[in-house]
Amino acid sequence: MRGVLKLKVESGNTKKVQTGAKNFFSSYGIYFVLILMVGILSIISPAFFTVQNIINVLRQISINGILAIGVTLIIVTGGIDLSLGSILALAGVVATNHAHPEPYYPLALIILMGIAVGALCGLVNGSIVAYSRVSPFIVTLGMMTVARGVTFVYTDGRPIIKLTKEYQYIGQGVFLGIPLPIYILLFIGIVGFVILHKSKYGRHIYAIGGNEMAAKVSGINVARIKLFVYTFAGALCGLAGIMLASRTNAATPNAGSGYELDAIAAAVLGGTSTSGGRGTIYGTIVGVLIMGVLSNGLDILNVSSYIQQIVKGVIIVGAVWVDQMNTT
Amino acid sequence: MNSEEYILQMKCISKEFPGVKALDGVSLNIKKGTVHAVIGENGAGKSTLMKILIGIYQPDQGEILYKGKAIKISNSHEAIKLGISMIHQELNPVLELSVSENIFLGREPLNRITGFVSEKELFSKTQELFETLDIKGISPKSKMKSLSIAQIQMIEIAKAVSYNSDLIIMDEPTSALTEAEVTTLFNIIVSLKAKGIAIIYISHKLDEIFKISDEITVMRDGQYIDTVKTENVTREKLISMMVGRELKDFYRKQATEKGEVALEVRNLTKEGLFKDISFKVHKGEILGIAGLVGAGRTEIVETIFGMRGSYSGEIYKDGKRIFIRNERDAIKNKIALATEDRKALGLVLCLPVRHNISMAWLKMLSKFSLVQTKKEKNICEELVKTLRIKLTNIDCSTNTLSGGNQQKVVLAKWLLTSPDVLILDEPTRGIDVGAKAEIYGIMVDLAKQGKAIIMISSEMPELIGMSDRIIVVHDGAITGELSREEATQEAIMGLASI
Lengths: 328, 498
Description:
The complex is a heterodimer.
Chain A lengths: L19 H25 L6 H26 L7 H13 L10 H25 L4 H20 L9 H8 L1 E2 L2 E2 H19 L1 H11 L1 H6 L4 H27 L10 H11 L11 H20 L4 H23 L1
Antiparallel strand pairs in A: 1-2
Helix pairs in contact in A: 1-12, 1-13, 2-7, 2-8, 2-10, 2-11, 2-12, 3-4, 3-5, 3-10, 4-5, 4-10, 6-10, 7-8, 8-10, 11-12
Chain B lengths: L5 E12 L2 E12 L3 E5 L6 H8 L7 E6 L2 E3 L4 H7 L1 E4 L11 H5 L15 H15 L15 H14 L4 E5 L7 H16 L3 E5 L3 H7 L2 E6 L2 E7 L5 H9 L3 H4 L10 E10 L3 E9 L3 E5 L6 H8 L7 E6 L2 E3 L4 H6 L2 E4 L3 H5 L6 H6 L7 E2 L2 E2 L1 H14 L16 H14 L4 E5 L7 H16 L3 E5 L3 H7 L2 E6 L2 E7 L5 H8 L2
Parallel strand pairs in B: 3-8, 3-9, 6-7, 7-8, 13-20, 13-21, 16-19, 19-20
Antiparallel strand pairs in B: 1-2, 1-4, 4-5, 9-10, 11-12, 11-14, 14-15, 17-18, 21-22
Helix pairs in contact in B: 14-15
């Protein structure tokens, strides 16, 4: 690859001068979309803009939000992870299988176990991505199938039920009127923000996504950073798997299928570039909110779930299309 | 002179890029059926002028007359239609397709009944083309990937002719050719000339220019210097026209007291790339590495910097043996390398200048892994000021900067790591003269501070003007060492092309 000069065609005459308004839209367009959606839904349906419903939306997005934060770090390095949903399921069943009243395991140990299983899957992804030439798409596609298969083997295809009260509290508990999953999302959001925007590792993540060779020449340990982002995302899947099982009182082997795509969609909606080097945690959160508000709003408006899928797909492509037009 | 004998007249062409005046009122007049060489140092504006001619850039000012008519070329497609073809330095054939498919790509002759590509006609047309150009030894049916670079170049020329071009631009056509292949190429050029086709020949190799060209236009720093008939000019005259200034004033490096040895390399060998490389660099010294492109210069310094993994031989820093497995080891040992290819290896263009400057030294700017932004900003501001990097603010995207300023950002990045040994691979490639002079100034200052500098450059005057000592590399081995007094273009070329 090196040494091949890529000619960037610039035409001096037609150089566009970015106007203030345009600049504003390209940086904040996605926030605008969110506000617009909330505004419209509030007008159409009085049931939408109520405290209870907003808490509802936040609770509903918590799992997608956690996955999206993990996948944002990966996408900013120029990678992708298709195995998030399967890892979520595997970590979920392993953790939940130890959450029966008999034999009893301490809650902290169960949570740690789920996170560890997720992190391990992520570590495998990361190692192959970092040390082989296989593309992240293929590596995580493989993991998607393998982790799902292991989940079925582990559970023999049956859901895991009969859970302890304290385990159920993770997904169903309410503290100060706000469901626990929202606190967890907030915490993970802060962790993701600090990593990507405040720490040197965040800088490394951007550098790798922007120009991996230049990052390497600048002394950045590219392999280690890649290992980290996949492992971190895997660990978050573990956490999300526990939350989902706890909320639904069961860990099912086909839980979370398709979740990775929602997470990727949210990250991309929030301005993360799939070619790497660009994306933010707050953008991703906005992307997650847009998707959450959309499905909540359509539910309130009694739009069938079939139609909802169509709307969701159109909005994802449309939003990114508009974003692209503004940035190039 | 009668304007009808010109196929192309470019008049007072100007082109400005953000921060650089690439062309300033340049004229170029090409007569029918002649070979017209365009020469100048790197950054003189030759390639910008050619890109305007084939429609990749639009001129800010000036007009182009082609066959006596004023034209405007807005893309390379239009240029081809007008009969202007360019054979690029970097060839890009479709390797999996056959020779004839490559030549007629996108305009394959079709069978009138089926509408499919008519292979028979395709091959016969190619064969015809080869005969008129006297190209031998290539089958129209062979796959492109089975050809040598010289043969691929022949195919490119054939392709240009097949478009009925009246003007063919050749950009450094011989850079990858052997002597025998150059002779074949020149034969083809002579036969093209006989057909009335004009050729613009861009090359750094003066010998070839004297052999093949009829007229020569010299450019320097984006300006038109003169057009001369080849038979009326000497080599020395051409060089002085290209350089055009007293070298002594431009390069400010003065001989300095040699300090202790900062870096020593003994018998450094990397299989297939270079062998038994040994040299020393002293503190306060600028060591130049000369050699032709592909001689192994870049590979040597990249190995010292850990970019190419394992090596045999020994590297000593301040008299102590060091082991370098990767770039991080090199940085830890206070060695820095500003790479040849700024865009591919030096910078992350989409990121802010500040992030690029601090990239190699984030560890020291972080506390508990968190970047201390305030400290980082102060240090970056300071470096921007001392290196006089022109930018709106340190958080602007690096790709908005001009080439010279980008190069300074690379320098800033490495200076932040406070290196003892600074390796600069083609530090002034593709940047304008003003920025060049500033970079020379920075190098002199750094040497005065006691840093050891290794500079690779293909620009002889720069190498001679800046280096205290020059080693010459040829075919992966050091063929000689020249002191400041001994270093002349002739001496270097003698050693570089044994």
